Amino acid sequence: METQRKWSRWLVAFNLLLAATAFAGAAPIQLDVDATDATRSILHAKLHIPVQPGPLTLFYPKWIPGEHMPSGPINDLTGLEMSANGRPLNWQRDPDNLYAFRLDVPAGADAVDVSLDFLLPTGGGSYSTGVSSTAKLLDLSWNEVLLYPQTAEPLKLQYVATLRLPEGWQYGTALPVASASGARVGFSPAPLETLVDSPLIAGEFFRTIDLTPGEQPAHLIHIVADSAAALEMTPGDIRHFSQLVKEENALFGAHHYRDYHFLLTLSDRVSHFGLEHHESSDNRQVENYLTDAGARQTMPDLLPHEMVHSWNGKYRRPAGMATPDYQQPMLDELLWDYEGLTDYLGKVMAARSGLQTNEDFRETFALTAAALDHRAGRSWRSLADTTVAAQLLYLAPSSGTAWRRGTDFYPEGDLIWLEADTIIRQQSQGQRSLDDFCKEFYGGESGPPRVVPYTYDDVVKALNEIAPYDWRGFFQQRIYEINPHAPLGGINNGGWRLAYTNELPALLKTREGQRKYTDLSFSLGFSLGSDGSISDVLPGTPAEQADIGPAMKLVAVNGRAWTADNLRAAVKSAATNSAPIELLIENGDYFKTYQLDYHGGEKYPCLERDTNRPDLLAEIIRPLTPEPATNSAAKN
Ligand SMILES: [Zn+2]
């Protein structure tokens, strides 16, 4: 009796052990990535996945965090072969989920070996589907080169990754390194969630700058570029980026990373975007981003925006976007907070840290407000509809944006959260601000990455704790209802007014030069590229009334080959007489002259000071940790 009982207890323990090995507690998955062929646009990967005999489903990541859409680059997954104990296994794609592969693991096998290639994109696309490599560098997102087995909690599966790089290349990543010898790097075991959240940049021209020397946690900026010259950063810029780290930590009061790594890729050939992660951000910009002041003036808030996401988007995440795997669709409705607030804070942080001048900060808001106020699509769809349909709008072409609307929750988020900021300041007689909400809602306690989901109700409740107000009504009206006009209350409360001037503002002039376009949106009703192609025509403007549409190409103005200067001169001159402006336009194979009976002169958005109200905009962008900086802010 005694012996038997012992035996059965042993059996129970053994069965529990067996059950446990089927899940995340099993031996880690080995992932070996060979990037030595990256310069010819292909990566090779091998996985050793411990499994049990029987039916098995392996997934390729589909919904990539931060991309807000099912953008896993499945078309570039190639050469997929599976085997067990050296014998090939047949796999079949699930017709209901093209990112799922089904197979049978034979008796006696305890692992499946997978080998796959990833075709690095060579054109088009963005994020995971964007161009990520050149002859001199590679941006590696681990989700592109791995599969994971179906389990209850796939994000917790342990992976041990290794990477082989081209000879002489250096790298930067937030993923902790266990060993490195020559061109081979071995990483510490990490859960799938951390691995996918920790991209790596590598290349021949590479440098790392410590932005908070001697402090814990460390804040590093790793830069990889297509040339050695592009890595140059002035001491002033280093100071501004260091200041950025201090300002963000002062704003939130705590952090959710072990160390923070800005990954900055500078190349004219890769896709340009930023993608947020808990402990790093993947920032991709033009090659001269650091060496040409105009290039950075055009996009000063990229790094500030992506770092804000470590708190808003990664640590605090809308419940509908905190999915348990990479197959379940993300519900994007609260992007007006996740992206909208982050976009606003990114601009505020850029100004507070000195990456953007106060004048440019105001001009940015003028351009944003004017563009949104002229967006005719406001008459048929709410801002909330652009968030719910974000996965479509990220992929929409730019032509037709005025009528379709785009991912407007970014720029309109700037206006709405600016207004919320001014309301808190007014309601509390200047005692509180949106900064307090940020610290309260997104700050928490310092520690390693974790996700704390939130709902719309949580946002309303937290705002009410900072400053009692009808916040639900505020968001309902601005986000969930149709609004023919842009929300300008924040600009007005802030002591400024949206106005139009006939002088081309300095920031717009720089943008036009950098992006090679001419913007006459608020006079004739269109902007056009350097080759004359009209990108979009604003409904209700002289251009639309004259039947001009997108994809047409301007050839001549008043009988003479067009240039930006003579087009502007024609608009200016028409303001002083009654003759129409004549535009010769190419539409496919046909040419036609259009008469624009417009005499309003040049019009560019600007902010005008309203001296009846205090300048809250200046208050908002005043640094929390003015230079010379104290070190306390980064030490929490
Ligand atoms: Zn963002």
Task: Give a written overview of the molecule.
With 636 residues, the chain is α+β, with helices and mostly antiparallel strands. Helix content is 29%, strand content 26%. The chain contains 20 helices and 32 strands. The strands form 8 sheets. Strands 1, 2, 4, 5, 8, 11, 13, 14 and 15 form a 9-stranded mixed beta sheet that branches. A 5-stranded mixed beta sheet has the order 17-18-19-21-20, with helices on one face. A 4-stranded antiparallel beta sheet has the order 6-7-3-10, with no helix packed on it. A hairpin with a 2-residue loop joins strand 4 (77-84) and strand 5 (87-89). Zinc ion binds next to loops.
Give a brief description.
The chain is of the alpha+beta class and 636 residues long.
Helices and strands in order, then pairings?
Blueprint: H1 2-21, E1 29-34, E2 42-50, E3 54-59, E4 77-84, E5 87-89, E6 92-94, E7 97-105, E8 111-119, E9 137-140, E10 148-149, E11 158-164, E12 170-173, E13 177-181, E14 184-187, E15 190-191, H2 192-196, E16 200-203, E17 205-210, E18 219-225, H3 235-252, E19 260-266, E20 273-276, E21 280-285, H4 293-298, H5 302-308, E22 316-318, H6 335-338, H7 340-352, H8 358-373, H9 383-388, H10 390-393, H11 401-404, H12 411-427, H13 434-443, E23 452-454, H14 456-466, H15 471-480, H16 489-493, E24 496-501, H17 506-515, E25 517-520, E26 526-529, E27 534-537, H18 542-545, E28 553-557, E29 560-561, H19 564-574, E30 581-587, E31 590-596, E32 604-609, H20 616-620
Parallel strand pairs: 1-11, 18-19, 19-21, 22-23
Antiparallel strand pairs: 1-2, 2-8, 3-7, 3-10, 4-5, 4-8, 6-7, 9-16, 11-14, 11-15, 12-16, 13-14, 17-18, 20-21, 24-32, 25-26, 26-27, 28-29, 28-30, 30-31
Helix pairs in contact: 5-7, 7-12, 8-12, 13-14
The structure holds zinc ion.
Zinc ion (ZN) binds near residues 305 and 339.
